[in-house]
């Protein structure tokens, strides 16, 4: 077996943690950059000798350069990193970076990302930029073209819907509430996409240009945060195929190797609109750990290291992923939900080892596998009834 390259990961959250599992199996040395000694990812894999996992922000030039000096290749588990430093590191030949820092920079700004994809013929919901510190009049002006409702979105540093604010009317108090909620951040507006379903596809591409997608999944969000994911996408088979095609085409416009999560809206007329792309493992691919022949995490490592890509087919006829979200600062509801799933056949529990629980924070997830959709639905009901906010 060829000597393994050392991989440096910017970010040590749950996605980094799930990358450590296949890294251990494949004997890939990993170094994780994040602030804190016991982040979710650092808990699960020791740094290769003689190193220790660097302790510092993944936006810090000094820390990224220190990581690069100890690694052969850098990658990310979060897009909100310092793309400029990654670009210099790559340019100076200090370390390879995958996916490309240019892709990471483009994706960091959701408005630029949308513009780039729309200009290349990828269908997206209508959208419009807003000036910095927009006034009420600026917001009213975009509704002239986009109609109502609209989704006001932060261009940068958005995740789990925390940069989104739906706006139903142009009443002064509603606009003010949305602007206050989003705070002092660069914003843009999207026309409302009255989707019938949300769909996501994971796409992996290696440096040699080989591309493989996973089966499309249905993602069910509440208040802009992913709750449940169903795999494969149910209903008409053609949609799965078209979603994979669109996702592969969109990723084809981005540079670099690795796994990409492509979020889409399925519209009433069967058309698909692209919502956004993540240049990293994604919550809508977590089920692939138990439910696919090769997990999204393993395929990411294989892709960036030029190892053969793994098969993406599902191992089971039906699967689901249920996020375990914090409901308060107490860990008790998190553990209660995780423990109740242990009695359900086909359920696999993942807890992320986060020190503190907070409302709507992703604390873990459960993957369910079953021999049929009917069997899956029954198991899913058992688990969802144990959720603290099941009736919400
Ligand atoms: P993520 O955690 O996926 O990175 P995010 O914070 O970047 O999320 P988006 O993916 O833009 O936010 O939006 C989150 C959710 O909000 C979407 O999955 C969808 O449910 C809803 N949403 C976003 N944009 C629109 C839109 N234009 N019309 C209707 N619903 C939308
Ligand atoms: Mg996002
Ligand atoms: Mg999203």
UniProtKB/TrEMBL annotation:
<dbReference type="GO" id="GO:0004638">
    <property type="term" value="F:phosphoribosylaminoimidazole carboxylase activity"/>
</dbReference>
<comment type="pathway">
    <text>Purine metabolism; IMP biosynthesis via de novo pathway; 5-amino-1-(5-phospho-D-ribosyl)imidazole-4-carboxylate from 5-amino-1-(5-phospho-D-ribosyl)imidazole (carboxylase route): step 1/1.</text>
</comment>
<dbReference type="GO" id="GO:0046872">
    <property type="term" value="F:metal ion binding"/>
</dbReference>
<keyword id="KW-0547">Nucleotide-binding</keyword>
<keyword id="KW-0658">Purine biosynthesis</keyword>
<keyword id="KW-0210">Decarboxylase</keyword>
<comment type="similarity">
    <text>In the C-terminal section; belongs to the AIR carboxylase family. Class I subfamily.</text>
</comment>
<keyword id="KW-0067">ATP-binding</keyword>
<dbReference type="GO" id="GO:0005524">
    <property type="term" value="F:ATP binding"/>
</dbReference>
<keyword id="KW-0456">Lyase</keyword>
<protein>
    <recommendedName>
        <fullName>Phosphoribosylaminoimidazole carboxylase</fullName>
        <ecNumber>4.1.1.21</ecNumber>
    </recommendedName>
</protein>
<dbReference type="GO" id="GO:0006189">
    <property type="term" value="P:'de novo' IMP biosynthetic process"/>
</dbReference>
